[in-house]
Structure prediction request, 245 residues.
Amino acid sequence: MDLIFQKGSKESPKGHALLYFTNKDNPSEIWGTYIITLPIQVDIKKYMPPFLLNDSNSLNSSDFNSFAFPPSPELIGPIEIVQDLAEVRDEDLIDGGNIDINDSANNMMKINEILSQYLNLYLNNNAKKIEEIDENESENSNVNSLMYEFMNVNDRMTELSKLLSKLLFAIENSQDTLITECEKDIESLSTFYPENHKINKIVEYTKIKNKSKIAELYFKRCLYLAKENYGKVEECEKLIEQQEI
Prediction:
């Protein structure tokens, strides 16, 4: 989908934006998050405890060049507050559309999809390339594994959502190198999930055109398993069974 700029433009994104959504059940209620792309490369190693680095000599900063916080929308208030904030802070203002405020899994995926598109616009319009993969891929993979190991359940789900959105973007834009990078990162992250979370199914259906609904259901199932909400897990499994017929 095309990003809807209420302030600023896709021809010259600032690199930082307020992203807002409307509560579908209460249009006067605006929820939002803040997205940013870093203008400089960051040496992550300088800000990590030595015991996390082991024998690794470098870190790939490609996963740190953009982020959204909070990862799921928070209540802001009426639209006028968001508009005033964008004016005072000179932010891009992006309309993310309507959301179900109770569907945190879908909202996280939507935010990360918009973040990926915004990052691409920023890079393209500033004559920059998407960051290259580290020459030593195995070393980078080890570093990612260390990071995933020390993440909590919520952080891993946020990271998985980010990687899936990045994978979807790469597929839609036929970026084979980025697709390979995403698949390797997801495979590394999946080792910290039990097999019954079926991360491979999420990836499988993400890569199949017109199967995004099933991929979304598998992601929600994984999220509910992580939260031990087995009633919701059962609901997802029934919906998946209907979709896969």
Remarks:
- The CA atoms of residues 143 and 160 lie 16 Å apart.
